[in-house]
Design goal:
The complex is a heterodimer. By secondary structure, chain A is mostly helical. In chain A, about 65% of the residues lie in helices and about 0% in strands. Chain B is mostly helical. Chain B is about 65% helix and about 0% strand. The two termini of chain B are about 30 Å apart. The chains are: A mainly alpha, B mainly alpha. At the A-B interface, helix 3, helix 4, helix 12 and helix 13 of A face helix 2, helix 3, helix 5, helix 6 and helix 10 of B. The complex binds fe (ii) ion (3 copies).
Chain lengths: ~300, ~250
């Protein structure tokens, strides 16, 4: 990548200042491009890796309706992965390169998917909490400065709303069920609450890369702001169906009108990011195995395309 | 003894329920994301169709059962799907060969049922035939690609044809249940479809440079609830969540 001329830099900065979208052919600093490639590919990988924990329950869903909704949701996530890979491709990287980075451990995906879905209630907890947190983040990203990423977010957010509803519905149904079902829902809540809060990333005073991201308007709101928004709406939703938030320090601050939480275990967060979570190895091995198992199909498709047109 | 229509709804519903289950097993396992989308689509179509058919069966039966009770509350000997739908997915070639061979049949069956004197059934078939035409087309395209692809894909898709072929004869079996319904203008006469199906399948297979297997031993029994060993595994998994919500 070439260094930008003064005029190009001015053009880029003026566009950012005017809150206009940067488009693929616009001049942009290398750092901006690299930041976006990292962030968008990580986002794409997250959508795709996230299919595994939820896919774990498709064949065991509790009703035909729940099965259809869950499968449609996972299919959406797969589509989100595709849009996001395409958005990243506009920055000059191919899907194959992004997958190679994922397999080499150079690209990450959201740590949340390194936790296991142990019971059917975990499918409720993922939809409600994990998609709930993702939506807060993605709504904010609709205003991100890179055009293709912003437009992908607008499209994705339209599809996301039912994801959270399907999860909440599972939780509500179980909380209205037998004692065993209520215990299962609460257990899932206990295991997913803190990891969901950590999806927004480390606290603002501990977020190394966010300075550039704010200046470039890639990131529009801080981790703690987004996290707080999620907490405020989710605590109330939990109360409605009788779930307890697994945090003894949780309290409502009358002055600020916000819920305040106790300390989160950030050591665990960093450990899981580094690869030491319950499912890190499993998720990556699954993805690589599938990629390997499918190689002959992709090769055949390529070869056949060279062999001419299939008959109508 | 169940009424012929109820038995028929179980047969059609179970075909879609079990095939939809097999397709859903591909979730997060397809050779490329585009194919993950397509397989999920086909799974959704079939599970959705199973839901409609079993809802109709439940209302027709009038025993207070829900579609879920019927889908997930039976034992091995009371599922009536064609055996071809329960064959394990195998590799991508087996999945696509099954999908093509079954969908080529299903399109013809649903076209007939679209004019059934039973309005509910006709409505379900009219919706289904559009879906199954797409399934047939999608799978046929893959048969062609795999046949015209690499040595390995050609070997795999030919092997898949041999895996699936012994399950094709059963698709055209008819018993008194179905004969009663044909007379009433409700059911579909499968004998008249066989030649059309065979011609379609032969064409697609030979265009892909593959050979149609010879007819050998043919598996049958699904319509009477006599299955392969695979079904018990499907239902012990498939019925788990339903049973959980009863306890
Ligand atoms: Fe997601
Ligand atoms: Fe998504
Ligand atoms: Fe989602």
């Amino acid at each position: 990548m070439a260094v930008l001329t003064e005029a190009q830099t001015e053009f880029f900065e003026a566009k950012i200042a005017r809150d206009e979208k940067i488009e693929p052919r616009d001049p942009m600093p290398d750092g901006y491009r690299a930041h976006l490639i990292r962030q968008i590919s990580q986002h794409a990988h997250s959508e795709v890796i996230g299919m595994q924990p939820e896919g774990n329950w498709v064949t065991r869903a509790s009703s035909l309706r729940a099965k259809l909704i869950l499968l449609a949701k996972i299919q959406d996530e797969c589509g989100h992965g595709l849009y996001l890979y395409s958005a990243a491709e506009t920055l000059g990287i191919s899907r194959d390169e992004m997958l190679a980075q994922l397999h080499a451990g150079k690209a990450k995906y959201s740590s949340i998917f390194n936790y296991p879905t142990l019971t059917w209630a975990d499918i409720g907890a993922i939809g409600w909490l994990v998609d709930g947190a993702a939506i807060v983040n993605q709504v904010s990203l609709q205003r991100t400065s890179y055009g293709p990423y912003s437009r992908a977010m607008v499209r994705i957010c339209k599809e996301e709303s039912f994801h959270q509803r399907q999860g909440y519905e599972i939780m509500a149904q179980m909380m209205a069920g037998t004692r065993k079902q209520r215990a299962m829902a609460q257990d899932a809540m206990n295991r997913w609450w803190a990891p969901a809060l950590m999806m927004f990333g480390p606290p603002d005073n501990d977020s190394p890369r966010s300075h550039d991201a704010f200046n470039w308007k890639i990131k529009r709101e801080s981790n703690d702001t987004l996290r707080q928004r999620f907490i405020d709406k989710t605590v109330q939703q939990a109360e409605v169906i009788g779930l307890t938030i697994p945090d003894p320090d949780l309290k409502f601050n009358e002055a600020t009108k916000h819920y305040e939480i106790g300390p989160l275990n950030w050591k665990e967060f960093y450990d899981v990011i580094k690869g030491n979570g319950p499912c890190n190895r499993q998720r990556m091995e699954h993805h690589m195995q599938v990629h390997e198992d499918g190689a002959w199909v992709r090769e055949a498709a390529q070869k056949a395309a060279l062999n001419g047109q299939k008959p109508a | 003894m169940e009424s012929p229509l109820l038995q028929y709804l179980f047969r059609l519903g179970d075909d879609s329920l079990i095939l939809g289950h097999r397709l859903s097993e591909w979730c997060s396992r397809a050779p490329m994301l585009e194919e993950d989308l397509a397989l999920a689509n086909m799974a959704l179509d079939h599970i959705g169709r199973a839901k409609m058919l079993l809802e109709y069966a439940a209302s027709f039966e009038a025993m207070g059962h829900s579609a879920d009770d019927l889908a997930f509350g039976r034992d091995e000997r009371h599922y009536y799907n064609l055996l071809i739908t329960e064959v394990p997915n195998g590799d991508f070639a087996v999945t696509m060969v099954r999908m093509f061979i079954f969908s080529a049949f299903d399109v013809l069956r649903l076209e007939e049922l679209s004019t059934s004197h039973d309005e509910m059934l006709a409505g379900i078939a009219q919706k289904g035939v559009k879906e199954s035409r797409y399934h047939r087309r999608h799978a046929a395209d893959w048969i062609w690609r795999l046949g015209k692809g690499t040595d390995e894909s050609r070997r795999r898709v030919q092997r898949a044809l041999h895996t699936i072929w012994p399950f094709t004869d059963e698709m055209f079996d008819m018993d008194d249940t179905e004969r009663v319904l044909i007379e009433e203008g409700i059911g579909c006469d499968l004998h008249t479809l066989r030649e059309i199906w065979k011609k379609d399948v032969s064409e697609v297979i030979s265009n892909a440079g593959l050979t149609l297997p010879e007819d050998g031993y043919m598996h049958r029994g699904g319509r009477n609830g006599v299955h392969t060993e695979a079904l018990g595994h499907i239902i012990s998994e498939m019925n788990y969540g339903y049973e959980l919500m009863l306890s």
